[in-house]
Amino acid sequence: MKRDTEAMYATMKPWRLFFIVALPGMISMFAMSIYSIIEGAFIGQKLGEGAFAAVNIAMPLVMINFSLADLIGVGASVPISIALGKKDKETANNVFSCSVIMIFITSVIMGAVMFFAAEPLCRLMGADDVLLDTSVRYLRTCALCSPLSSIFFAMDNYLRISGYVKTSMVINVCSNFATLGLLTFFLIGLDMDVVGSALATSISMCICSIIAMIPFLRRKTLLEFTKPRFHVSMFKEIAACGSPVFLNNVSGRITSILMNISLMTLGVKAWGENGGTTAVAVYAVLMYSSDLCWPLLYGISDSLSPAIGYNWGAESYDRVKRIVKCAYIGTAIVGLVSTSILFFFPDVIASLFVKAEDAMLLEESTRAIRLFCFAYLFRWFGVTTQGFLSAIEKPVLATCMSVSTALIFPVIILGSLWSFGLDGIWFNFVGVNMLTAILGVILLVRVGKEIKDRMLNKKVPTKDIDS
């Protein structure tokens, strides 16, 4: 398995590599997002608009916790892949072992913070007296499971680096089914509220985290646990490589706070006293609708990152370009299909999360999805470009893209379109991704020149004999 994985990254034809690695990765990431979609459908249909809005208030805090695990997991994956490309397995195994320990410690600390500071944190997110209690109970339940659930995402990365792409996919699909079963049991069987939803998601992730560790504990993988050796340069490298994803997540959560505050204000202005809750609920429908599409984009980009990093470390620059080309073509197709589905079936998608009797919420959600969907005409390009920059250790450029996409561009457009009311917020995503695509083109031109110079300076041919 270990030799086969390295041979796959180094010599397999790029399109064959794409179908072997990226397709399972897409399924894996989509399965990971399905639990969120299922949760949204259960909460919206079973518990109603108020619970739906309350969970949307707490969710950014839950995602900030996961983003710290992503910071370490994704940040470690890049130097691990490059070290493997350089045949330096000792360094790769040490970074892997240290990162798992770091994720566990960080998750324990963040879980404690979220549990004991849940009330002020939810108020900070924009929760009023009506939504506060529900938001707090949801957040505290997630916090209790944080130490084990947070490591789930990192172990998924490490499985794919080690060539266990299908294993990763199976684990994620099983996580989806486990969440569905637990949601049914807690929300319908035991008639629980949002606490049951948080428990279902957390328990399934904890179980799958343990299962994902088994191949590594059996020492059957390309990566192996070794005695950890922590050093400052490793911390810096992990922080630098993980910062684009981390800052993207954190910036996105800050943007969510601003959006929730704006939604409460504009909702009341548009629809009266309870309009704020309705506006937040519509925004939640948009976020859950997005979970039908963006994981497919991220699944392609993230799945091919180990292969890109491996060949970058091996100085096979022509092969890097060929693999990246496959990634762009794949995500472009997904972006076009996603836009079409969201545009032509917004009412069907909205009805997954909204009760039929909530006519106003259903109508406004349908309208919002139809405005929001055009973001995917551009989003594919930004996701792929950021993933490529991260994979080749360009953290400054990748961070520039992530912070601009998640915070700077949304705030600028939010202010520019304020006079358009709630429609301005729904259209915000389209404007953000247009600007991100333009920024991506500029950064790609810069990196393209560097790759050309590296290829010219090599003393041996870089052409991939198997392409």
Describe the secondary structure blueprint for this structure:
Elements: H1 2-11, H2 14-47, H3 49-85, H4 89-116, H5 118-124, H6 129-144, H7 146-149, H8 151-161, H9 165-189, H10 194-217, H11 232-271, H12 275-290, H13 294-313, H14 317-344, H15 346-351, H16 359-372, H17 376-391, H18 395-416, H19 422-457
Helix pairs in contact: 1-13, 2-3, 2-9, 2-13, 2-14, 3-4, 3-6, 3-8, 3-11, 3-12, 3-13, 4-6, 4-8, 5-6, 6-10, 8-9, 8-10, 9-10, 11-12, 11-18, 12-16, 13-14, 13-17, 14-17, 16-19, 17-18, 17-19, 18-19
H-E string: HHHHHHHHHHHHHHHHHHH
Low-confidence stretches: 460-467
Radius of gyration: 22 Å
- The fraction of residues assigned to DSSP E strands is under 5%
Helix content: over 70%
* Protein structure class: mainly alpha
Main beta sheet, described?
A: none
N-to-C terminal Cα separation, in Å? 23 Å
Averaged pLDDT: 81
3D shape: globular
Count of the domains? 1
Tell me how many strands there are: 0
Please work out how many helical segments DSSP would assign: 19
